[in-house]
Amino acid sequence: MKTRSVRKEDMENGTYPRQWWIVDGEGMALGRLATQIADYLRGKHKPIYTPHVDTGDFVVVVNAEKIALTGNKMQDKIYYHHTGYPGGMKSARAGELLAKKPTELVYKAVKGMMPKNALNRSSIHKLKVYAGSEHPHAAQKPQPFPLKG
Length: 149
Known about the structure:
Elements: H1 8-12, E1 20-24, H2 30-42, E2 58-62, H3 73-76, E3 78-82, E4 89-93, H4 94-100, H5 102-113, H6 118-123, E5 127-129, E6 143-144
Parallel strand pairs: 1-2, 1-6, 2-5
Antiparallel strand pairs: 3-4
Helix pairs in contact: 2-5, 4-5
């Protein structure tokens, strides 16, 4: 028996079509949700998973503003970014970031769960995050995300 390996061309020409999944983030724990989303973006849930090919699906997250953080993370967890200018280190607490940019909070959590390589830097673009319950991807007919645990 030969082991078949998926090629980049197989994913691009539609031999293995990508699915669209939708997740309602209301009341979900951020970290637990981010790990499952990262697996679906990489394609680890599929039997055709190949580490060197992007076999992942699209994931749409709605209600990002209603996501939950456990413990004291709202006050204690700090996110840093640099503006690129000297002395430009900025910080924001998780609660502040959730109030200002709830989509960034989910995006950063999922990106942190992805491996740090070129393939997964490009596969993070399949993640679509929206603060409210409306999204423009109804034409793709996203299926409900099968949450584990």
